[in-house]
## 1
Amino acid sequence: MIFSKSTEYAIRATMFLCLNSSGNECFKINTIASAIDSPPFFTSKILQTLVRQNIISSTKGPNGGFYVDKKSKPIILYDLIIAVEGPDFFDKCLLGLSTCTEKNPCPLHKDFKKHKEELKQLFKKKSVSDIMTENNNGKINLKI
Amino acid sequence: MIFSKSTEYAIRATMFLCLNSSGNECFKINTIASAIDSPPFFTSKILQTLVRQNIISSTKGPNGGFYVDKKSKPIILYDLIIAVEGPDFFDKCLLGLSTCTEKNPCPLHKDFKKHKEELKQLFKKKSVSDIMTENNNGKINLKI
DNA sequence: AACATAATATGATTTTTGTCATGTGTGTTA
DNA sequence: TAACACACATGACAAAAATCATATTATGTT
Ligand code: FES
Ligand code: FES
């Protein structure tokens, strides 16, 4: 709805990693892709950008794959989104004007500002593992 | 941010029409496009889909153009958005799953549901002319 | 050294965005 | 009324971006 497919895959894949890695196991891209119903090669490319930005990790070779380092700091959803969509994702104008400011607001700015800020704060507050533990009474739904 | 360029242009153009039409004047596409900084031919095509869906009106020939019928019912933002993005825009899953339901929710559903509903209601409540009158203390900003 | 897998590069495909040419209806004018 | 100009309507086309697929390379494991 508001994210690109790339971001959707990035979040779903990272959720899968957080959910299934208890130690420091690796998951190869085919495992991940079939677990979240995504095109494997495309997903791999997206995960690589997450690796480069130190959101997740990877190792090559046999028994290699992608993983999340449980010992490093938790993965904040906001950082994950920004990593794929770009740093100004939450600061864009709803109507596509070049800047979203109080000084030169578009007609919808006043009404939309609050919701935008709330969404931003929601994603800044929650980590992927937060989401996983909040939902672990039912089963986690990551497939189409 | 959450809309396609098409929808952004649709909203900006309709705002321009509401703002500038006191009687039933027409505005030709070049006037509209330069007023909202949009590609004229592309914008024209978008406005034509709005005409087909009875959101705005148009007349051909000299002194023709696009206009909003002041006597017909106000243009609700929700209807405008749906007309371009499609009828299920506000019912999509944030993570791209096929359905957004309480029965099979994605991990973010619980946290996102409230905000999605609020946004939906915001757009359902406000008409384009509402927005125009709310903002008419400053000058209306529709250009990039 | 052989193998498995991520990383990288590259290309194909699809969707979105934008442009062009032509058709069609409408009003003006002679 | 006939010619003409005007501006939307329509569909073909092009460029750009996003998405998806394949091949090659590099690297770590055994
Ligand atoms: S200026 Fe448009 S949302 Fe802030
Ligand atoms: S199921 Fe994903 S937002 Fe409702």
## 2
Amino acid sequence: MKTTIKDVAKLANVSISTISRVMNSPEIVAPEKRQRVLEAIEQLRYHPNALARGLIFKKTKTIGVLVPDVSNAYYAEAIRGMEDAAREMGHNIILSNTDKNKKRLGDSLQVMAEKRVDGLIFMSEPVSSEDYELLRATGLPLVLAATHSLEYDIPSIKVNDEQAAYDGAVYLIGQGHRRIAMISGRPADTVAGLPRLQGFLRALRDAGLELDVERCVAYGDYRFEHGYEAMKRLHRSYPELTAVFAMSDEMGLGALSYLHEVGVKIPAEVSVLGFDNTRMASMAIPPLTTVGQPIARIGYGAVQKLLKVLDGEACELRTELAHELVVRDSVIALISQQ
Amino acid sequence: MKTTIKDVAKLANVSISTISRVMNSPEIVAPEKRQRVLEAIEQLRYHPNALARGLIFKKTKTIGVLVPDVSNAYYAEAIRGMEDAAREMGHNIILSNTDKNKKRLGDSLQVMAEKRVDGLIFMSEPVSSEDYELLRATGLPLVLAATHSLEYDIPSIKVNDEQAAYDGAVYLIGQGHRRIAMISGRPADTVAGLPRLQGFLRALRDAGLELDVERCVAYGDYRFEHGYEAMKRLHRSYPELTAVFAMSDEMGLGALSYLHEVGVKIPAEVSVLGFDNTRMASMAIPPLTTVGQPIARIGYGAVQKLLKVLDGEACELRTELAHELVVRDSVIALISQQ
DNA sequence: CTGAAAGCGCTTACAG
DNA sequence: CTGAAAGCGCTTACAG
């Protein structure tokens, strides 16, 4: 069916060894012969079978990517970065959605192990001990993207979540806000939820601001609907707030929607600050000011890092990428208070 | 390194043939032996090497997916559907972003051919003749998702774009709108741009409405910024409009943003209708009424279809999935005109 | 410089 | 029921 090395050998009238040589170390074969082989390859549109090569080299140049859900804007953008890096390094990506479900994760891992991917990138919230066991059982090199592990020594790449939330809160305070509420991730999420909450609280403390966590913090799982509900709750429990810091753009948009619904002007009456800087932040009304993560670069960096460990190169265990405040129109300066 | 069939054979004290048999047709091997082998497999956590099997079966159970850009919400959702279907059928997906760039497409295709993916799914706007040549040169089975080809007989799955646009326009008209503008895709895009424009025009014609295409239709490439600019243009060229039909949710959001900026109330003064029903439609302010495509199901159906052609099963050439009007809050009924 | 041979990890007729 | 052998498509020492 597909043309094989034998077909080329026959056409060029040499042994298959020679064909293999012109493909792998051309300089070692006689010029005229090399030329003849090249022509045969061209003529037959010969493409070496990567399965056969993989069997020999024990490398497939493909990496397995595990994310909760591609259809989420954040993960989609990270995957874009991964594919770009993979492509540049001559690799491919096999994508798997885990839905944060052990069974799905286990199944994917099993198949990836059988297909002999060179390594794994795991992207999600905290690496639970079950996740870790599953991951480790494959024996495959692993890099964490947008998450990390404090219990296990797994290379990872992410933003400094505590500091990012701190900086976001400081910005709000600098704009004159004193009554600030937070739409937080779950404190049980020790990778993003808890540290961001801590960063937020540290900023308020440093500014000498009091804050009743019960009244001023609502929780959600980073999704639009949660942001909407959380905002509704805060609007009642903390009606005097002048600013809300949401820990994802989606939750920020949810807050925007709720406030708009009840007729609160943004940012005139309430300022909203988001987190992530996904593309939707700029599509909000008003365009959402947000603490930006370099999402695609996290993905890009994750595969770079994985390829380094595959090459046995040294690399730092936990890479930290810089976040950046992206100022748009959803936060207003409270001049009156200055 | 990795444990192989030989290790298992040694441990179970049988030949490798027997190991292979218990993995592929267990009923054919003696019960006690089978048991012994199963234990050895378990104990060594043996996973057969998919490369070796692929070499023999000439099947890799992986399919290559080519999309313009995963980070686009529409494609991300389709990919989700594809992965779900692939997983259910025991397949994997190798993802590649083409950026609608011949070079990238060619490179991806080359690698996918070498890795011997079982088939290809191509998702994008029209299949150009160069695209087609590239695709065909791989010799791999192909299915088109959210696009089709009228020149070539390639199995495809999509919505009826002309009818969907027609139905959207009819809805607007039914709500009492008479002065309707359109933010269209490019007419050069013969898969979505042109047919939707035609469907829109047909609806107005059927309703006996006059429309000056020059003044009332603006064009864009489905992105937010284009929707924004197009709306700005329409606002000047056709100030008396009461409704705008945007051919993507992103462009709809762009229109919303522009109108909000210039103080036009939505939907009180202008109604906006989107297309696609991506998740962001529900996150808009106001929530966007839109002509919905079953995006994930298009992806799901595309791999189902591909697997059918791989199995040599018969399947229709062009599958059409139903669209559906999703009513939210961005379109108002013009009572006064009824 | 080049061919024959062994081997990568599996499967499957072919003989027993 | 089961083992030895050939073969999937390649690569690479090993001899010339």
## 3
Amino acid sequence: MTQYIQVAEIEHDEPVEIPSEDDGSLLVSTLAAQFPGACGLKYRNPDTGNFRGVRLSEGLLYPPDGVWGSHVYVVVFPKLQPAVTVPERSDEGEIHYIPSLCDNKRKGDNELENPSAKTKRLEQKKCTDLIVLGLPWKSTEDDLRSYFSKFGDLLLTQVKREPKTGQSKGYGFVRFANYDSQLKCLAQRHMIDGRWCDVNIPNSNEMNSPPSNRKVFIARCSENITADHLRDYFIKFGEVIDVFIPKPFRAFAFVTFLDPEVAQSLCGEDHIIQGTSVHVSSAAPKFPAKGAGERRDGAGVEIGIGTMGDGTGIETGTGSIEIGIMIAEVGIRDQDLPVEGILT
DNA sequence: GTTGAGCGTT
């Protein structure tokens, strides 16, 4: 018959009573329902003062000596080793000296906190948007929020819909404020409104970007994001020397930084600007451009048009225009250059 | 009003 087992998240914390199965064993999934991400239990052995682990087999925890008794058990969570617990993407080969992506701090303001390098790396691991697959058609942003907030504070909830009908496409995105929330969330499946849903790091976050460029590509811009918004937002990471938004609206932009390091450090990240989650990636094209400048390595010719003076690139307005052609190890984005009509 | 693998109006 069912026993109730006292379990606390940390020792001396207030315990929660968790039901066993009829045979006395405890499903890890039952445990995880109260303590998301939990993978085991331990308890203090009164004889030695040491912690003792509870036996785990096939997703079931078994009571020591056959009875759970009146111990207060303590939840065991997976060690925070991202390489093991999280499906890593290729964008993590280097340490990012970023205290937290989510509060958007950068080098220069992190010297005082975070003593050990190892801790630092863990704490600094960035939160990305997470894709939630398999949502019920009726699930809303509010439903996502109320479900996922048990893992921690949320910075974004989004259900993707058909623009015309508003009908859900059955998936959405969430983003946590803290990386441990993200880890816990990724470690399990989710029952949302009667359906099992999967949470993953979206494939669209893959960043196999080639090296150094001061210009980054800002994807998923919404129409209400202006050049000033972008400049004001990104200035906190380093000096912004150009912002380019195509007209008419094309849902992307370019931001150029003075320091290529800054540009590179932002690649692969998601940022929330004017309530929209935008994605930063290298301004180099994913595929070689078609046509004249094409090369097998994706490099090509970049044609720049701009006014003289501050060197910040394309601007509008009157005045003399300088046309320059620069051979560079940068590819051409097709979006970059419908310029034939202007070269007169 | 239906559906059930996917990847966000480059």
## 4
Amino acid sequence: MKKGDHLFLVDGSAYIFRAYHALPPLTRKSDGLPVGAVSGFCNMLWKLVEESRDTSVGVAPTHFAVIFDHSSTTFRNELYDQYKANRTAPPEDLVPQFAVIREAVRAFDLPCIEKQGYEADDLIATYTKQAIAAGGDVTIVSSDKDLMQLVGPGVILYDQMKDKRLGPEEVKEKFGVYPEKMIDLQALVGDTSDNVPGVPGIGPKTAAQLLDDYGDLETLLERAEEIKQAKRRENLIAFAEQARLSKRLVTLDCDMPLDTPLDDLFLNEPDGEKLIAFLKAMEFTTLTRRVAATLAVSASDVETAKIDVDAPVRGPDLDPAAASRPAAVGAGEDGAPRLALVPAMLVESRKGEAAAASFDHSAYLTIRDEAALRDFLAEATETGILAFDTETDALSAMNGKLVGVSFAVSPGRAAYVPLGHVSPNGEADLLSDKSVEEEIGPQIPLETALAVLKPVLEDPAILKVGQNTKYDYLVMLRHGIVVAPFDDTMLISYALDASASLSGHGMDELSERFLGHKPISFKDLCGSGRNARPIAACEIERVTHYAAEDADVTLRLWRVLTPRLAAEGLASVYERLEKPLMPVLARMEERGIMVDRQILSRLSGRFAQKQGGLEAEIAELAGEEFNPGSPKQLGEILFGKLGLPGGKKTKGGQWSTDVKVLEELAAEGHPLPSKIVEWRQLTKLKGTYTDTLPNHMDQRGRIHTSYSMASTTTGRLSSSEPNLQNIPVRTEEGRAIRTAFVAPEGKKLVSADYSQIELRILAHIADIPQLKQAFVEGLDIHAMTASEMFGVPVEGMPSDVRRRAKAINFGIIYGISAFGLANQLAIPREEAGLYIRRYFERFPGIRDYMDATKAFAKQHGYVETLFGRRVHYPDIKSPNASMRAFNERAAINAPIQGTAADVIRRAMIRMEGALDEAGLAAKMLLQVHDELIFEVPDDEVEATLPLVAKIMAEAPLPRVNLSVPLVVDAKAADNWEAAH
DNA sequence: GTGGTCTCCTA
DNA sequence: GTAGGAGACCACA
């Protein structure tokens, strides 16, 4: 080794674990030997070898070694017997792969280094030191922070997965200190995965700051007395020895004896035949092909190597008969039409068909040219059915770029059309002279594909079937295609099986439930966390398996689920309440709502200032620095250190510190709890709203939420990323956030909301004469209730009496319990029980309704809204009393909440058409359960308000004619706060 | 990094 | 007492 030489040291053990976790469990096809980690390892190593052959980069290695840990006990265990004591044994299916991976390294003709009693890190440290001494450079291929201490002149760390090279500046950026202080930093912080203790309460941020202030660990420990923060000071003093021990544990040994001298690590030209023989034996076809191409060796000429593996695990045999086994009764093409005359028969036959289904990934097509695409889509013209699914590079349909589309025309007949795939090697490939096409194969140009797809996706004679179609609809909408007509398996499932106990209506879940098949998960394809990579950079063959399978599964689900709609009388729910709402919501999401960034940032500033003041006061009152955001620490301060009374415990056995508890303490005259309450409120508003909302804004200053149509049991929508259905309104400070929701120049925001819709629906369903009368007369319903219950005249009623009645009214809707009402009103449970009894005496119809609903739910297993939406409560017959009671309350609430949800859905579905017909340009932007927000041109506000109110008020008609009026308040203003 | 717990925002 | 989503913290890998 001499000046100018370059040593690559691969942290092999870390590599193995990354490869293992990055890839789905894979087995060798012929004998079931687990080879997932081997495969990942070989791919990574090959990429590295390939990169290093590229001399143009100027970092090509002259020396190369792969370093492994040899055993679990090292000299560090003599220093500290707990070192790495919390490590668990490697996964069972990984163990047999260790030996194979060493074989792999030898097949690559690379030195494979390990030594008893030392960790790979020590070997790496020693080789690094020697190489630098000899005048060479070193690249350590790893991202382990334990190795950061080695970074310095001539030494960098290379994170291959992220394609990142770390020098001293990058280490500083990541950890706040330069590499030479990494050891001290690690000694302070400790390492949970290696069981290095460190100093309690010191994290990376604090450690970096301390080292910055005091220079090094020893100085810091000697001068610990000077530290202001009490807890920090105490810990540094108490745990000084522990820090010194930690330092010795994390310090790498760079002078260990080496069995293989540095100069023997000279890099050889890989022996193509040896490598290919090994890869063939492993049955890594793709990598074999790639290696063969690069090294110019014909893979078919090379004989497969004999790999000795002890006791390969044999997987279950595929049943070759399964595919040809006759489908269940009635599923045959001959029998089906006859049986299908009755919906229930069709349901049965389709169930049989689904149960007999088998999936063959290798049968899926990858379509790479226009002609093939046209041919495939022509099959849909024949059948009239086309399942389709889009793959994009982002989770949200509003941001995602189209990467590919997949189709299925009949069970098992599916294809994937890659459109926006890129090289799996990312930027590294810019340096090679191979074009993307040469590397990953041809793709149809996006515009060409869209031109072919448009007439099909818009063809009224072809039913497009999707799963969560709002996503695909939006993606295509952004490419100028309006998908129609369509069916949505998620929405069908939701209409059929909305249930409190079933978890959801996602495709994977439905597939397992109805097809008995677990599809390839997105994680399997693209990995997760740090190993995640964009789908566009995944191997197209694998994406085909994944994406075409999704379309195939969707089509099969559609075949099983659709007949049930008619058979179970739920077609109208699906056709009238679900399907037509999807495009409406898609358009609302696409529009987004305009937000004033300045207002939010001003609020953030104001909140931050108050927050800072409060933090100082809190520390003062507590007598020490602590994190007021940690309920655990707060509980210890309040009830432990300060010894305040009235502590309650939560489920987790900790002190409860919610607002109620804190307010009780405040009422007793303690100053700290009220400061905490105030701090929490500000932190919440700042952290959840004013700081976060700007991150969701697009270039035009608009926020696009995403509505989920199938994630509540009752039929309500939910909103996420961001959730715009929980923007504060209760407090003045919170309401200020709503002033940031604005309309652009020349327009106003209109908010229209139903007044007391759930109580009105309750009055109608339970048929309560007094309530109905009060609504007809337009009285104050809570005051009326109070008057009935407590005999207090409405005129001059004390606000507290009305407040109680209001709480009871809400309680009824929620399936009242004495416990809950007592909690809400902060009164004894006996008193709450008394109120409830009196309520039932005054309004006996309510009790009848509740009893009847419970009985219905027990008998049928579900309850229904006025529009026929069903919500299932299988657990209402649970032997567990509290679970039963919970289901009873939910069953009482669901028809009320669900009917209200149905009503506003109907209004939304009709709204666009009505506005259109009236020649109004108002655009619906948001829904918040009983409120709709519109953007309206200034000069149309006057005409829009009454129309919107009318559509909303008349939404139940003609299907349901409520015996109470629905009242809608509509208002226009410059921002949401003023319009509400 | 992931998942659970706690807290808090809405109708 | 109903129905949601989300951020922060913390223990576990």
